[in-house]
Sequence to fold (235 residues):
Amino acid sequence: DIVMTQSPDSLAVSLGERATINCKSSQSVFHSPNNKNYLAWYQQKPGQPPKVVIYWASNRESGVPDRFSGAGSGTDFTLTISSLQAEDVATYYCQEYYSSQLTFGGGTKLEIK
Amino acid sequence: EVQLVQSGAEVKKPGESLKISCEASGYSFTNYWIGWVRQMPGKGLEWMGVIYPGDSNTRYSPSFQGQVTISADKSISTAYLQWSSLKASDTAMYYCTRHVANYNIARWADYWGQGTLVTVSS
Fold:
């Protein structure tokens, strides 16, 4: 089974500053036949269900602000918020969908400093 | 508009059975995988399993295999998650999810239900 490890567990960033969240998979989630990384990022605000923000490691979901970006390949991935806004306070999860198990990372709680 | 509307909160006793539902609308129910995610109080997301309503193909996380049953009734576009004997440790929020498919395998969840809170207490 693929294990997804996120870091840090929590992060406090000032408004307007950059926030970077890391996600590491225990084995590669890159599929060479289609040149895609099978990784998504979700945002969960308090009291709400999660919503997808990034899929295929770097594709932004429709309606997601362009300050959100995803990068990485193979086993190491990052979610970056280029200029943190108050509405970005949430817990962020990565998820691999390379295996049939769709494993989530443990989550990173993002707060305002 | 795609919607996943889940059944309401439940309070049950240990040993009781339970079936919660997720009614889908706004898309072809039989053409997408639909799944379930558990979130225990104050904890992270855990993928439980998925079903393809078109042919009832079902896949479970090893952590949940044998503990729950996922089913679907395509005549009413509704998916279900059921327990035959609840435990206190089943207390959690449960979300249903619709999944994008690639090579006919469930991938990321593009829509989520509002969640069903299940409380199991004596």
Notes: DSSP finds no helices and eleven strands in chain B. The mean pLDDT of chain B is 96. Chain B touches chain A through 22 residues (CB under 8 Å).
